[in-house]
Amino acid sequence: MKFAAIALGAALSVAATAARADVIRHPIPNSTFPIAQSVTVTGNATTVYVSGQVPPVANKDADPATPQAYGDTRIQTVGVLNRIKGILEGQGLGMGDVVKMQVFLVHTPSAPMDFKAFMEGYTQFFGGSQPNLPARSVVGVAALANPGFLVEIEVIAAKDTVAK
After folding, report:
1. Reduced to 3 states, what is the DSSP secondary structure of residue 51?
2. Are strands 151-160 and 98-106 parallel, antiparallel or unpaired?
3. What are the Cα distances from residue 35, in Å, to 49, 63, 136, 158?
4. Largest CA distance in the chain
5. DSSP symbol at 148
6. I need a labelling partner for 49 at 20 to 30 A (CA). Which of 2, 85, 112, 133 fits?
């Protein structure tokens, strides 16, 4: 009887461990670049897919079809990431729960994408005081939905749904 109780307890412990979600971030070997090489999500995780977000208006006096209304690439990046942060917080998650990020930066022959300015905005949210790095891609695109937008970002966030 005692053996059966021990075996049942062990089986329940294994089942609880197997059902637990883990978010495992795999860094880029020998690199300090602020993205993960990959992220593995296992078990019982809540996954949230945030649609592409665009920047808020930064200058209400500017034509809303121009970048002057939304700011340069750095300002637009910070604005977009703040929008994403608000969406995630509204669902009980944070920027540290972002596991995948897809970034679209306007890039044309006459106006190449400003990756440096994007990184200045990005590192305000990832790699400094918030060390959970997402897997990430940055893609140059000819245009976004509004000619004033230089940045659009979509993310996937995952969080353990089982209390640890």
Report:
1. strand
2. antiparallel
3. 19, 35, 6, 16
4. 79
5. T
6. 112
- Which domains does the chain possess? 21-160 (3.30.1330.40)
**Number of CB atoms found within 10 A of residue 79's CB:** 20
- Tens digits of residue pLDDT in 46-74: 899 999 999 999 999 999 999 999 999 99
Q: How far, CA to CA in Å, does 23 sit from each of 13, 43, 158?
A: 20, 9, 7
Q: Which amino acid is at 81?
A: L
Instruction: Spell out where the chain has E strands.
Output: 22-27, 36-42, 45-53, 98-106, 135-141, 151-160
Burial group, residue 75, by CB count within 10 angstroms (0-12, 13-18, 19+) = buried
Quick check: pTM over 0.85?
no
- Residue with more model confidence, 84 or 110: 84
